[in-house]
Amino acid sequence: MDDAVRFDPWSAAFVADPYPAYRELRAQGRALWSEATGQWLIPHYEDVSALLRDRRLGRTYLHRFSHEEFGQSPPPPEQEPFHVLNGNGLLDLEDPAHARVRRLVAKAFTPRMVDRLTPAVRRLAAELTERFLAQGGGDLLKEVAEPLPVAVIAELLGVPEVDRGLLRPWSADICGMFELKPDAETADRAVRASVEFDAYLRELIAERRRDPGEDLVSALITAHDEEGRLSEQEMVSTCVLLLNAGHEATVNTTANGWLTLFRHPQQLAELRAAPTDMLPTAVEELMRFDTPLQMFERWVLDEIEVGGTVIPRGSEVALLFGSANRDPRRFGHPDRLDLTRTDNPHITFGAGIHYCLGAPLARLELAASFGALLDPSVPPLRLVREPEWEEGYVIRGLRELIVAC
Fold first, then answer.
1. Bridge-partner residues for 313, per DSSP?
2. Which of 32, 108, 295, 368 has the fewest other C-beta atoms within 10 Å?
3. What is the pLDDT of residues 345-382, one digit of tens each?
């Protein structure tokens, strides 16, 4: 099959607006080969949702095959620190290891812990908003969207305030490896960040073992010590994943969401008029309309068939979340922003065993951030200039969002 039309994740124009290309992909078929990425593209909601739950696919293949058995080359030895850190986190583990680690992490990452954070999240969102308004606006991404989830995740993990400035650069460098075909410079930064973050967390774990608190690291230590079924590397990798996944997605959802609202002034005015009533559905709709995670990759462990196309073992599929969330077979008028949409089973948080463990915390942060800026006492924000997008496609976000009030 020919290369899928217009799927060019390295093009700035595509990254800025991939949705017209997604419409073409959905019209072409259900499984489309991309020579450029070496993947089978899956653009339809029904297929993406089903394959997220299909155990014939996996985030890794190493629980069943060696690299050689699977027809893949092992990563360069110098990248080992990144792959060890990433491979022991919940996102890349497969059963039975995934079920064991998720069960233990879930014992620590409880609804009660999220509830305990609620007053702090709302207070921080209000403080960031007040500071932003006092200076007459600025970069909403750097000054509001970014600090909130960084501070929340740091509070959750028990990272001292003096060290929190370390987290965002480490996260950004590690997440660079999740893009398609990262270059050598990106890999070097990711390896360096992996080494530094791993060392920092092991030291933090040692401190919490000596002096436990009410944070997640202390709770994970308890899970490790009581049953001995959570290795220290799994603890470290889990903490890194919570930062990277929970932080990058929330930052980009906030900034992308505000850009969407600025481009739909009538809907923004309606939301400002009734934020309390509309905010729950509005947050879900903003996540659907322009999801920060555009693609989720899976390896085919056993042959599958999608829409009459046989995809053999050893292949990689690219589940196009951004396309699935705009599929007209599942969402009425999918390219229309509807902040009151109630039938909205978007897959921004994934599905199946890898469904985002931090979804409740993300929703709390987003509601607090949007709620603070939409409060009737806050003057309306306005976009100062059209923003530019970062180069990344898999994790898609803005470079900046300059607004005034």
1. none
2. 108
3. 999 999 999 888 888 889 999 999 999 999 999 999 99
